[in-house]
């Protein structure tokens, strides 16, 4: 394989690696938000149960929605982040293999002066 082709493939892999890193970061943020939503829903549910809001059906619906929505978002983004991490690792390994295939050339044989 020609060095130019290797460079092109490495460049494509580096773009893919950047995209995967962004996906992982986005998932991390959404996982944090989902945990906050679950905690807020649990606190609201406890408050409704203790009678802090009387018999407000809206508060109960919001509490349940926060808990269930948080669980769904957490599960979905955890799975996505795990898949992206696996893809990221594979892309980094492949990039390393391609870099190892490039023929390196000696720039000069002169002794270095310090």
Give a short synopsis of this structure.
This protein has 114 residues and is an all-alpha fold.
Question: What overall geometry do the principal axes of the alpha carbons give?
Answer: rod-shaped
Largest sheet: none
Radius of gyration: 25 Å
Could you tell me the number of beta strands? 0
Write the H/E string, N to C: HH
Strand-residue proportion: under 5%
Average predicted local confidence, pLDDT? 90
Structural class: mainly alpha
Number of domains: 1
Low-confidence stretches: none
Q: Ends: how far apart?
A: 38 Å
The residue fraction in helices comes out at: over 70%
Counted by DSSP, the helix tally is 2
Written account of the structure:
The chain has 114 residues and is mainly alpha-helical. The protein has one domain (3-101). Helices cover 81% and strands 0% of the residues. The protein contains 2 helices and no strands. It has helices spanning 3-49, 57-101.
Chain-wise SSE layout:
Blueprint: H1 3-49, H2 57-101
Helix pairs in contact: 1-2
Summarize this structure as a short list of keywords or feature phrases:
mainly alpha; 0% strand; single chain; 114 residues
């Amino acid at each position: 394989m020609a060095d130019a082709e290797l460079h092109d493939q490495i460049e494509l892999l580096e773009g893919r690696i950047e995209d995967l890193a962004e996906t992982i970061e986005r998932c991390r943020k959404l996982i944090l938000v989902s945990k906050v939503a679950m905690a807020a829903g649990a606190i609201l549910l406890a408050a409704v149960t203790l009678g802090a809001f009387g018999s407000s059906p809206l508060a109960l619906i919001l509490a349940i929605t926060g808990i269930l929505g948080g669980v769904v978002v957490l599960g979905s983004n955890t799975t996505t982040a795990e898949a992206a991490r696996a893809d990221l690792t594979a892309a980094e390994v492949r990039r390393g293999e391609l870099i190892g295939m490039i023929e390196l050339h000696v720039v000069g044989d002169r002794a270095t002066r310090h």
